[in-house]
Design brief:
Length: 211
């Protein structure tokens, strides 16, 4: 840091534009220039993301943070590559740093929570009002139909790995009361599906607010 540089600083409640007035080895002092408009606290949105290759998982964490997700839970799915779960436990702190940086860039007051990897039964026990797993099979109802207009509430979204969820995983989602919904006929990569689905969730909530 150098004297005169400007940064956005936050106490997790408000955000200010500030200028570095003192920059020494162990001390940095800021002069507050103005308060900035911080983004609203996002509504509760949990992303259960099946473990995929780590560079792609990191990209998904970054973009999910920008799109307002409040919690990311890695899930070991049947079609996740072998060995990813063990490696993921060593990368959780890295994913948290990625979420922190993306949160700052998006001017969020606090980053999403990034949990340690879990198995599908833990995800199925979720109690959010809207619980949705992405279903790439033809005939699945559109994701938009999972959100009645004027009905807010917490959302939990499950995105599968390459090849999608296995048949018995789909069955277990249904038994647990989750809704299988589609993003359309195209087969998307997992990280692309994360962005597309969260954009739908974000827009439906915005539509409810405008209405």
């Amino acid at each position: 840091m150098e004297v005169g540089q400007k940064f956005e600083i936050s106490d997790n409640r408000r955000v200010w534009l500030a200028e570095v007035g003192v920059a020494r080895k162990n001390v940095v002092e800021f002069t507050v220039l103005e308060e900035l408009a911080a983004g609203e606290e996002p509504a509760e949105t949990t992303l259960y993301l099946a473990l995929i290759k780590f560079e792609r998982f990191e990209w998904a964490v970054e973009k999910a943070t920008e799109l307002g997700v409040t919690r990311v839970i890695p899930v070991q799915a049947q079609r996740s590559e072998r060995g990813l779960e063990e490696g993921a436990r060593k990368r959780v702190e890295r994913w948290r740093r990625i979420a922190q940086e993306a949160s700052e860039q998006s001017r969020r007051l606090r980053p999403p929570r990034i949990d340690a990897p879990t198995r599908l039964p833990c995800a199925l026990a979720d109690t959010a009002e809207h619980r949705i797993w992405l279903d790439e099979r033809p005939g699945a109802p559109a994701l938009l139909k999972a959100f009645p207009v004027g009905n807010g509430g917490a959302v939990s979204l499950a995105v599968g790995p390459e090849g999608g969820w296995a048949d018995d995983e789909r069955e277990r989602f249904g038994i647990a009361g989750w809704s299988g919904n589609s993003l359309g006929p195209s087969i998307l990569r997992a990280e692309t599906a994360v962005c597309a689905a969260l954009a739908v969730v974000l827009q439906m909530r915005l539509f409810d607010t405008i209405e």
